[in-house]
Design brief:
The complex is a heterodimer of chains A (454) and B (180). In chain A, 29% of the residues lie in helices and 25% in strands. By secondary structure, chain A is of the alpha+beta class. Chain A folds into 2 domains: 41-146, Rieske [2Fe-2S] iron-sulphur domain (Rieske Iron-sulfur Protein); 183-438, Alpha-Beta Complex (Naphthalene 1,2-dioxygenase Alpha Subunit, Chain A, domain 1). In chain A, the strands form 5 sheets. In chain A, strands 12-18-17-16-15-14-13-20 form an 8-stranded antiparallel beta sheet, sandwiched between helices. Chain B is 19% helix and 43% strand. The two termini of chain B are 21 Å apart. The chains are: A alpha+beta (454), B alpha+beta (180). At the A-B interface, strand 12, helix 8, strand 18, helix 13 and helix 14 of A face strand 4 and helix 3 of B.
């Protein structure tokens, strides 16, 4: 191993990022084991498999999983490898099945994972003497859990609970995933590959408001979304809590109802939000005046929420996208991008919000098109020798001694801490967490570690 | 092939027929407009009520006909949203296409069918889009079949509806800052 991970993490903790972390194969090999092998990884949303037998096939890097709702309605996560000789059990991406039959030797599994049939049990195995079906089930990851319908799994046998892992971030997750008691309807994903390192998108969504006015200048020019003007963008708050953080837009003054209506939610959805969100959650929008926009939970799960104008009549409608930066290699990422809308939203809203999503994000989204160009280009030039020596300057918000240039938001109604103005606080926090995992530590349960030391 | 409502095959208009040749020429001309980035002229090829849709393709057991994902598309455009996309490329700030991609839209296997609607035709074509950016990466290929509803107008044809059936479930191109 030619990289020194301690040195890299030391630099990263000071907001100086060796540029080759965005391309280095050894870094990626270590990430596979220490980050993706330990963290809680998003797989699917329950609404994607709403009926018994519904399944999607998802992965944690190179591990393929059938995420299926069994006949009793329970969600199962099954390792997609036949117990016999390792054949890929399910070669479709999505569908509905009561049983999965391996095409190699016809071993048959119920959609619970239980082995229920195989040919010539008596002749080939001497019946139960050689093989007991009731003792055999497709493997599952050691830890599976869900929050607001978001199904996560961890490959770590000693993982903390999902609840503990998400920590204070749950407060912010609710904005995207719990706008009513019914929760989300999630559609998709669009999948496409970009020749960029996975961390770049994760960091961008966690806290990069500084890029919005310039990278996304064109969307303001064409009247798609007027908020990203620089003078306004810096008024938003950048928050971070335990395992993730995000950006917000500052809204014009008004009550909770007025602010949420300003971004385009209809009355019944606003009433529903009032009934499911805590006073503190509502205060973040109302009294503090901040509407969540982009966010990232370590390692590679992000969200975005904007409210563009979608027709010539000036209709402004919000949308939610859930996305995952699925690493393919150190220099390539497969983006999974879902559209999410609350189940109780009116039909007109679901259609309009979907249009808003397609215009802004996803494979053809007008914001996302320019983001991808940036990230691909970074990865291209991060591959050489000088990239190892270039320490990228990720110290926005700090002075030369590493002290804060501005104070955190006072009376921040949520967990964690927040700043207004431009700053790379969240990117540094995300990479601090990354760094701990890379050193083989457990930042979630470590008593002496915080992602937000300042 | 195309089928009527009762499932019987609609006969393809012969290649020797002038209608086929007009449509074929129209589609080849459209490809030239796209590859030379004449986006205003390209946009003028669509009717006011156009629907331009590219569903997400997926892999489902036992079926090719239904191998699209319900509820998610790569494109689901009307004239307003296509207009916005073109407007964006006409600002000087659409960084993803500056420098521009070098594209080549290969249009083949054109099949034209009569339509029940007066003044309309159905046109299917294969598309292979070659896309190259810069000098560091291999080019992208995007393969698809387009099914178009064409309406006769004075100047020739306009596209009233385009359904694009892309052949990959995971696109191997960095974004759809190009059209199919």
């Amino acid at each position: 191993m030619s990289i020194n991970i301690s040195d890299i993490v030391s630099d990263v903790e000071q907001g100086l990022i060796p540029a080759n972390v965005y391309s280095d194969e050894e870094v990626f090999e270590l990430e596979k084991e220490r980050v993706f092998g330990k963290a809680w990884m998003f797989l699917a949303h329950e609404s994607e498999i709403s009926e018994p037998g519904d399944y999607v096939v998802r992965r944690i890097l190179d591990d393929s999983f059938i995420v299926v709702r069994d006949a009793e309605g329970q969600v199962r996560v099954l390792f997609n490898m036949c117990l016999h000789r390792g054949m890929q059990v399910c070669r479709a991406e999505v569908g509905n099945a009561s049983f999965f039959r391996c095409p190699y030797h016809a071993w048959t599994y119920k959609n619970t994972g239980q082995l229920v049939g195989l040919p010539h049990h008596k002749d080939a195995y001497g019946g139960d003497k050689g093989l007991r079906k009731d003792e055999m089930s497709l493997l599952s990851p050691p830890s599976v859990d869900s929050y607001n319908g978001m199904i996560f799994a961890s490959l770590d046998e000693d993982a903390p609970s999902l609840e503990e892992y998400l920590g204070g971030y749950k407060f912010f997750l609710d904005f995207y995933t719990k706008q009513s008691e019914e929760g989300l309807d999630v559609e998709g994903p669009q999948r496409w590959r970009i020749k960029a390192n996975w961390k770049i998108g994760a960091e961008n969504f966690a806290g990069d408001t500084y890029h919005t006015p310039h990278t996304h200048h064109s969307v303001v020019e064409i009247g798609l979304f007027k908020e990203p003007k620089a003078s306004k963008r810096k008024l938003g708050a950048l928050y971070f809590a335990d395992i993730g953080g995000g950006t917000t837009y500052h809204l014009p003054s008004g009550s909770f109802e007025e602010k949420v209506a300003y971004v385009g939610y209809p009355e019944n959805m606003i009433e529903s939000m009032k009934s499911v969100w805590s006073p503190e959650q509502q205060a973040m929008i109302a009294e503090a005046g901040f509407m969540p926009s982009a966010a990232t939970i370590l390692p590679n799960l992000s969200f975005v929420h904007n409210w563009p104008q979608i027709n010539e009549d000036g209709l402004v409608v919000p949308f939610i996208s859930i996305r995952q930066w699925q690493p393919v290699s150190s220099t390539e990422t497969e983006v999974y991008s879902w559209f999410a809308v609350d189940k109780l939203a009116p039909d007109w809203y679901k259609e309009a919000s979907y249009r808003a999503y397609l215009m802004c994000f996803g494979s053809s989204g007008m914001f996302e098109q320019d983001d991808v160009e940036n990230w691909t280009s970074i990865t291209t030039v991060a591959k050489g020798q000088l990239a190892k020596r270039l320490k990228l300057f990720s110290r926005m918000g700090l002075d030369k001694e590493g002290e804060l240039l501005s104070e955190p938001v006072e009376d921040w109604p949520g967990p964690g801490r927040a700043f207004t103005g431009f700053g790379e606080y969240n990117q540094r926090s995300l990479l601090r967490l990354w760094g701990q995992y890379m050193l083989g530590n457990d930042p979630v349960r470590a008593k002496d570690f915080t992602p937000t030391p300042l | 092939m195309a089928t009527t409502e009762d499932g019987s095959a609609v006969k393809m208009i012969p290649y020797t027929n002038e209608t086929h040749q007009e449509v074929h020429q129209f589609l080849v001309w459209e490809a030239e407009l796209l590859d030379s980035r004449r986006y205003e002229d390209w946009l003028n090829l669509f009717t006011k009520d156009v629907v331009y849709k590219m569903p997400v393709r997926t892999t489902k057991a036992h079926t090719l006909e239904e191998s699209v994902l319900n509820g998610m598309d790569h494109f689901d455009e009307n004239l307003y949203t296509l207009r916005k996309r073109i407007d964006r490329f006409e600002t000087e700030h659409a960084w993803t296409e500056d420098p521009p991609s070098r594209t080549r839209h290969f249009v083949t296997n054109v099949r034209v069918y009569p339509s029940d609607e007066n003044g309309e035709l159905l046109a299917k074509s294969y598309l292979l889009l070659f896309r190259s950016r810069g000098d560091a990466h291999s080019p992208d290929l995007v393969s698809a079949e387009r099914t178009d509803v064409l309406r006769r107008v004075d100047s020739g044809f306009k596209i009233a509806r385009r359904d694009i059936l892309v052949d990959e479930s995971v696109l191997r191109t960095q974004n759809l800052a190009v059209f199919l």
